[in-house]
Amino acid sequence: MKAFESFVHTSFAGALGWTLFHSLWQGAIAAAALALVLSIARSPRIRYACAALAMIAILAGVVVTLIWMIPEPSRPFATPIVLPAAAPLAGGISTAASGRLKMSEIVPWLTPLWIAGVIVFYLRAVASWASARRLRRTGVCLAPEAWQCRLSALADRLLGVTASVSLLESSIAAAPVVIGFLRPVILTPVGMLAGMPASQIECILLHELAHIRRADYLANLLQTAAESLLFYNPAIWWISHVIRVERENCCDDLVVSADGDAHDYATALSALAENRLTTAALPANGGALVNRIRRLLYPETASPSFLMPLFSAGLVVLVTAVAATAWQSAPPAARQIAQAQSTRPALPPAAAPAVPELETPWRKWLNEDVTYIITDAERDAFGRLQTDDEREE
User: Fold this and answer.
1) CA gyration radius for the chain?
2) 373: which of 93, 180, 294, 327 is 20 to 30 A away, CA to CA?
């Protein structure tokens, strides 16, 4: 327990805690910018790229903030002097200082909570990966040779698919799905190849090949890793949802460009829904099927389905609230001095101890850090010190 508390009170735990705190408003700004782009852009490729850039920007912001927050070894820090507790000052200074101390004490505890959450989410990701491995190896059989040959022909039609792709029928999979990156496999539910028209099956297989061409399996793994690292940030989950939706739309567009018949592909998606195969996507829950069909049939009337006005208003409120909290938790030095001057009773001229002019950081430490707790005798004794070593001691 003591080791745990010692870790919480380290400078690294404090820096990481403040980094997690600041990442909330950074994520809100990135999500607000993405919401603006989504309200303007219509191309799924542009929307997908912007969503991926928004997620990368949040991750980069976390790294930069953490580097900025970690104290540099050469940065001078004055060793705090243990002094008797001073009487509360008039005018509410002690209340404000107490509030700041409480905030600085709470934030480092975010670090162990974040570590525990990351472990839980990564364990969940590992379990999902193991489940995918089991899906690939259990209850599967090779698809008929005719469909294997047709899959190779479809890969040639969809330029860019150079990997050797296997087609398997699965008694476990509920929907067509791609598993693997280096040696990709397409799993189809048992009976789908025999129970649907060949033209519709080709559309579904083209969609899965589009995922392979775009390396979406690897992208999804990286996306899951980012979600696990920033699981506490609502903006990450919303951006991740946008990425998955636009990923499906990008693959739909590739199918239409290769096959040339959007109506036939929309019919294939409807047939999947009727057969209780909820989606033809990687992963199986990606995208809203009705919105995808509507977008294929009526592309000119398709509109963003992300509740832009409501979400943008929520982001503005979140950014404002977090910024106000950060301002109140760490007011600038000038604001502290102004508060002290307006509320602290002035000492008579004769009673004020004579303190020589000191260079920073000693002047800042004396006039800001300990100004509310140091006594006049201690201030006078500190002023008579001659060297920096004495002042540090």
Assistant:
1) 30
2) 327
